[in-house]
Design goal:
This protein is mostly helical. Helices cover about 40% and strands about 5% of the residues.
């Protein structure tokens, strides 16, 4: 069973402004023990603490109910970065460089991102259709949203 930081440690790191993901990463760096972001969130709740950062949602560019197995796919990561950029949130230099390259690839290929949760790959690029407009994604029909 994976361990999580104790209440005192969690409280200190939350006061420092760390996100749940950053807490999980620091826990690994300091103890060598894996701890998921979800486990950190449960520990925060269990101890009655409050996270300074709400979990970021990317519904503007990831409107699908994404299977956990697909959540770290390269196209999903790029869509999250694009969503953050559009909101004026910071990206590191590597994320910004990779995002720009990916956006150029979409434009050059005249492609958009499509998602199908019932496939092993999940995300892939498809040819842009007129109904896609300027979106980087193929928006799902209401029945496909899964919400």
């Amino acid at each position: 069973m994976a361990s999580t930081p104790d209440k005192t440690t969690l409280r200190r790191w939350l006061r420092e402004g760390l996100t749940q993901r950053q807490i999980a990463e620091r826990w690994y760096d300091e103890t060598g023990e894996n701890c998921s972001r979800a486990a950190v969130g449960m520990a925060i709740s269990r101890y009655g603490l409050k996270s300074a950062h709400a979990i970021e949602r990317y519904d503007d560019l990831i409107p699908w109910q994404v299977q956990s197995v697909h959540s770290m796919h390269k196209h999903a990561r790029h869509l999250r970065w694009l969503s953050r950029r559009r909101r004026g949130l910071p990206l590191n230099d590597e994320e910004s460089r990779r995002l720009d390259s990916w956006l150029q690839k979409l434009e050059t290929s005249n492609a958009v991102v499509h998602y199908d949760p019932d496939t092993p790959q999940g995300f892939w690029l498809v040819h842009r259709e007129p109904e896609d407009g300027d979106d980087p994604i193929r928006r799902p029909r209401e029945a496909e949203r899964g919400a």
